[in-house]
Design goal:
472 residues; alpha/beta; 9-stranded mixed β-sheet; 6-stranded parallel β-sheet; 15 strands; globular
């Protein structure tokens, strides 16, 4: 089903424009859209702080500068000219009466809720009572619930006043260049497409490592943990794009249909194949409960029970306070026959395909070659591509998602059925989380994460810009 109303939005209303996400991401994305002449509507900021428009514009300039962007005054002045501001209590009716008076009835607004999830339903219900939803779209930041039951409850509340095609569930990983590019790399290249199945792939690893801790987010993070924070959403969405069949068409739901098929083919996760870790010193962070059992690291095994992937084990790991900041997908190909003409036949390493999502997105093909200098021995040969070098400066995730939201491109957003399926998949781990293993900051997590792979390929040292390839 395509959008019932695919008209571009002619007004962007940002709830929470004075918050942390706006400071870190949104203002920069808006500035970059303005610089590309891809922004052509007014922007109305809504928040609880009683500040002037001039103060908001100053905050926007500071945020853009702090993000590392070089500010062109002419571009910023155009962006500033689009801004207006309305403050008030988002849980009270007075704000929405003022909003309705400000917006009128002739616009197609995009309401972007950069707010705590507990406020999603109250805000949407108030927008509905004010008569502001008929021609609108509403974008919501994750998390979408904290388990399967709460996700279903939230979806039910939203659907009282919104159609599914009006709801845009934001997962910024879906806006990252290599994630967007993945379906084209897979299906436009026969050399890759013919290898992308259980006949060629022996196992699949996904790593999302962060080289920093929880820092000043202790209170938020302690109620969430790594499984909810990055696995249920970011990494399962990436895995679906890695594993899905080719979409049947370019429509909004075509790609989401294929992702949903992958999720339905994933059995619920087994707590016996799940490792939780917590870095030493985590419980000393302000906002974290003493004696907290919240995980800052997870590793798990899963499978996809369909024709393409049956029998291929999939290993995911994600954590904070690890040695590097890097996210990658790594496919191990099966071994070639050890033919008699090959010297030292058993030493040939299987090929690997690596998609690096962060930093410096790129793709690596690892081959085996015979080095005959000073005696024959096998060496890895890497064929590397940097997407930035080959394709130019990428559009940043929030820049892409804001533009997609304004034009109603729902391919970039998560759909209701996929959200509920991913919660179904991880629910057993929420119900039976198991013990917590301590690990040292700067290590690759607890030893139990390595034991999880016994009998399979070990975790690999991630492919970093300018780095070679060795095991952990």
């Amino acid at each position: 089903m395509n959008n019932r109303d695919s008209s571009p939005s002619d007004l962007l209303v940002i709830f929470g424009i004075t918050g942390d996400l706006a400071r870190k991401m949104t203002f920069r994305a808006l500035y970059r859209l303005e610089r590309r002449n891809a922004l052509d509507c007014p922007i109305l900021g809504v928040a609880g702080r009683d500040i002037t428009l001039e103060a908001l514009i100053a905050r926007a300039r500071d945020a853009i500068s702090e993000s590392g962007e070089s500010i062109d005054d002419a571009v910023f002045d155009r962006l500033a000219g689009r801004l207006s501001y309305l403050h008030g209590d988002v849980t009270g009716s007075a704000l929405y009466a003022s909003l309705a008076e400000r917006i009128g009835t002739d616009r197609n607004p995009l309401f972007y809720l950069e707010m705590p999830p507990s406020l999603f339903a109250p805000i949407v219900e108030n927008l509905g009572r004010a008569g502001l939803l008929e021609r609108s779209r509403v974008a919501l930041e994750k998390p979408f619930g904290h388990d399967l039951a709460s996700a279903r409850e939230l979806n039910a509340q939203l659907h009282v006043v919104l159609r599914e095609d009006q709801i845009l569930r934001v997962d910024h990983f879906l806006g990252k260049q290599p994630v967007v590019e993945l379906e084209y790399l897979r299906f436009a290249n026969l050399a890759i497409a013919e290898l992308w199945n259980r006949r060629s792939v022996s196992e699949l690893h996904i790593t999302m490592a962060e080289d920093f801790g929880v820092e000043d987010r202790g209170k938020f993070y302690d109620a969430v943990g790594a499984l909810r924070d990055v696995v249920q959403n970011h990494l399962l969405q990436v895995l679906a794009l890695v594993a899905m069949e080719p979409p049947v068409g370019p429509g909004d739901d075509d790609i989401n249909d294929k992702k949903a098929e992958v999720f339905r083919a994933m059995p619920a996760l087994d707590p016996a194949h799940y490792v939780r870790g917590q870095y030493r010193g985590y419980t000393d962070i302000p906002g974290v409960s003493k004696g907290s059992r919240t995980e800052t690291f997870v590793a798990l095994r899963m499978e996809i029970e369909n024709w393409r992937w049956a029998g291929v084990p999939i290993f995911l790991r994600a954590g904070k306070a690890l040695p590097e900041k890097v996210t990658e997908v790594r496919l191990f190909l099966r071994r070639t026959p050890a033919l008699a003409f090959m010297p030292n036949r058993g030493a040939v390493e299987p090929n690997q395909i690596v998609l690096r999502i962060d930093p410096d997105p790129g793709m690596r093909l690892q081959l085996a070659a015979l080095d005959t200098r000073g005696g024959a021995r096998w060496r890895d040969v890497h064929l590397d591509s940097s997407l930035a070098q080959d394709l130019g400066e990428p559009i940043r995730p929030y820049e892409r998602l804001l533009q997609g939201g304004l034009i109603g491109d729902r391919r970039l957003f998560a759909r209701e059925d996929s959200i509920e399926e991913t919660w179904r998949i991880v629910q057993p781990l929420l119900d039976s989380p198991g013990e917590i293993h301590p690990y040292e900051p700067g290590s690759w997590g607890p030893e139990a994460a390595h034991s999880l792979l016994r009998g399979h390929r070990s975790w690999q040292q991630p492919w970093l810009p300018g780095a070679g390839h060795v095991r952990d």
